[in-house]
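Section 5.1 Outputs to date
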Amino acid sequence: MSIHLPKILFGKVLSVFLSLLFFPLAQQALAQGISSSLIDDTPEVAAIRSVLLETQPGIDIQSIIPSPVDALYEVRIQNGQAIFASDDAQYFLPSDLYQVTSDGFVNLGEGRRNEIRRELIAAVDEADMIIYPADGESRAILTVFTDVDCPYCQRLHSEISKLNQYGITIRYLAFPRSGLDEVTYPKMVSTWCAENRNLIFTTVSRGAAIPLVECENPVAEQYQLGREVGVTGTPTLVFEDGSSVPGYVPADDLAAFLFEAE
């Protein structure tokens, strides 16, 4: 026996389903407004768009394009996330699409998120980062979203000399986990405002007190960037291809991973 939901009830069911999966993204979209860039505004695209905007008025639809699968469209939303929709706009699946290749399954959605992450981080001025350059030639650049009060961030930073000796340049971006109105935020602002950021960063990462100062700084902007690229905890390590790993990784393991193909 098939069950047919009235349109208004279908909308409510879809709204709850999507909001549970994408609630943080929807909040961001509501703040930014809808910025749709729709390709080939066909009747199918129009129908998919209509259902999503009716049931999810805050959704940030960036594009609706045919997927590699027949009769299935890919709706790209904020942060590189995707929803897949049938061409009759009756079925929706928030998910990643995998492709079978000679090397196994490839996550196309994760590839797209890596691309977005790489582009957004590449747009950050290095003058706004705290950088510990590699000793001698830089063999790899690792961008780290960090929190000076985070124990695992402190543990990672305790190995900064070893990482630099391996030829790894570390670039820190600020991500106070507790947000912009707690104890950590003023410490991070003071660190980024210091004349010698590297010295103060090392000092505060060791648990020592530092003078609290204010200046024009990028901490809040970098925090928002972290949220935009999917950072939920610290440290979050972002590699040069845009892929990321959450959490602390020992220096020896990190170097082995980065240079295993050499």
